[in-house]
Design brief:
By secondary structure, the protein is an all-alpha fold. It has one domain (3-181): Orthogonal Bundle (Hypothetical protein af1432). Helix content is 58%, strand content 0%. The protein has ten helices and no strands. Helix 6 (93-112) runs antiparallel to helix 8 (137-144). The longest helix is centred in the middle third of the chain and has 20 residues, at 93-112.
């Protein structure tokens, strides 16, 4: 697939599956969550690539072939690894790595910030268990040494802002230039 076609494929996936409720009974759809996360990044003045990562961070939920409600079934869908594997051939690492690391960033924040855990929705608490719980001290140090660790943490904080069923955001087309800016040259 060409670089130009990958964005069309992403848009098609959002069109087909974006109206599904976000995992585990959150009151937003997959598309609302992606747009709210990207909108939070954009309002914060994030880089084009981090905004693209915000749009794409949960793309793996749209394209995995697992049954719905995987968290309720006790399954970690590893959507962050899937999104990175699918999109690395097309997007620069400043897009794919924060998306891949947004789950470890949740584990990291739970380990270093006692107040962060209280921000998590019940579904996010359950998925945290499936994802391995808070990082250990050794894992924290290793995570902090990763090149895209700071953007992953920022993305994770935007992620928590993306669960308001009444939030208004620009539509997906608004974010196309950010996705295009994140493509490999």
């Amino acid at each position: 697939m060409s670089k130009a076609n990958i964005i069309n494929e992403i848009f098609e996936a959002f069109q087909k599956y974006g109206d599904q409720l976000y995992e585990g009974g959150e009151q937003v759809t997959q598309q609302q969550h992606a747009l709210q996360t990207a909108h939070a990044a954009e309002k914060d003045g994030a880089s084009d690539t981090l905004i693209a990562a915000a749009v794409l961070h949960d793309y793996g939920h749209l394209v995995h072939d697992l049954p719905q409600e995987v968290v309720a079934r006790g399954i970690d869908d590893k959507h962050e690894e899937l999104v990175a594997a699918l999109l690395e051939p097309y997007f620069v690492s400043a897009v794919t790595e924060p998306a891949r690391l947004h789950v470890p960033a949740k584990r990291y924040l739970c380990a270093i910030d006692p107040d962060y855990f209280n921000l998590l929705s019940p579904v996010s608490v359950k998925s945290l268990e499936l994802q391995g719980g808070p990082l250990t001290e050794t894992e924290v140090k290793a995570f902090e040494a990763l090149p895209h660790f700071a953007d992953a943490v920022r993305l994770r904080r935007y992620d928590e802002m993306g669960k308001d069923p009444d939030a208004l955001t620009p539509d997906l087309v608004h974010y196309r230039p950010y996705l295009e800016a994140g493509l490999r040259k």
